[in-house]
């Protein structure tokens, strides 16, 4: 199960050609800068139609080129299909079995993918925007209709902000109602899912970290305590004068915050960089396990050089708590650590200067 093969053309520094990865577990071994992470990025691209590194498709084209193409065949317990991504003449096209995919939203449930990477620390100690992104991604994986709710809210928010910037206040009350309606829907979804997610997350934390107290995510909604549209309208009305000065909407789900609580204490005030790193990995384990629990489907797992910073005990616990998956792909620096987790079903490639050599 998973990707049988991937064909690459002009994707970052990777050599053009077809790579066989038809194995439950694939190890990619190489020094930094040789293309290991780029290959994981190519699989993510085929899964979601975009990168986990950049929003600009031009940036994934090989240096000096203005086009690229990816092609892969994916097998799951439910289906078998071919995915294609093309970028040329500043335009991206997506295809499944030769048929055009008009909306990237339709890809979310095709190849559900969880990527573990160093940048995930931002979900723990980064900006509220980064934390909202993680929560929204978790919701979107499990409930694709949430994407429609999120898009609707963002469109209303954009239009309302345009009114504030242009000093056109006559329509503000109309947009207030629509903003309250769409925003409350997002808030309720976030509240409901975090209650369930925290149960999975705290359980994984206790085992992997080896600590007795729970670590949970506390949701601080911008419209805290609001249960009805009328409650929200009251807040929006109170903010009108201030928003006219600032020319932007100052409350709503786009201003929600999340805090990590270790028992009754603020986790970040206690945590070392290593502990933040560990929690970011546990977040991804919980995200993958929560997806399996909610949908009954197996995810694709991409793990980018995440084991090196863990001590042996936590590394073993982390590996043991990865959920069943369609396929797992790990990147490693050269050395002996990867041999501890290699099985008879593991396919191993060495990558050097974008070229793949199978062991």
TrEMBL record:
User: For binding ATP, which residues are annotated in this chain's numbering?
Assistant: 30-37
Q: Could you cite one Gene Ontology molecular function of this protein?
A: ATP binding
InterPro entries xref list: DNA-binding_RecF (IPR001238), DNA-binding_RecF_CS (IPR018078), P-loop_NTPase (IPR027417), RecF/RecN/SMC_N (IPR003395), RecF_2 (IPR042174)
**One Pfam match, by short name?**
SMC_N
Which Gene Ontology CC terms are recorded?
cytoplasm
PROSITE patterns (UniProt xref)? RECF_2 (PS00618)
* Family listed: Belongs to the RecF family.
Q: What does this protein do?
A: The RecF protein is involved in DNA metabolism; it is required for DNA replication and normal SOS inducibility. RecF binds preferentially to single-stranded, linear DNA. It also seems to bind ATP.
- Please state where this protein is localized: Cytoplasm
Task: Spell out the PANTHER family in the cross-references.
Answer: DNA REPLICATION AND REPAIR PROTEIN RECF
Alphabetically sorted, this entry's keywords are: ATP-binding, Cytoplasm, DNA damage, DNA repair, DNA replication, DNA-binding, Nucleotide-binding, SOS response
* Protein name in the entry: DNA replication and repair protein RecF
Report the residue ranges that make up the RecF/RecN/SMC N-terminal domain in this protein: 7-323
Q: Which domain of life is it from?
A: Bacteria
| Example GO biological process | double-strand break repair
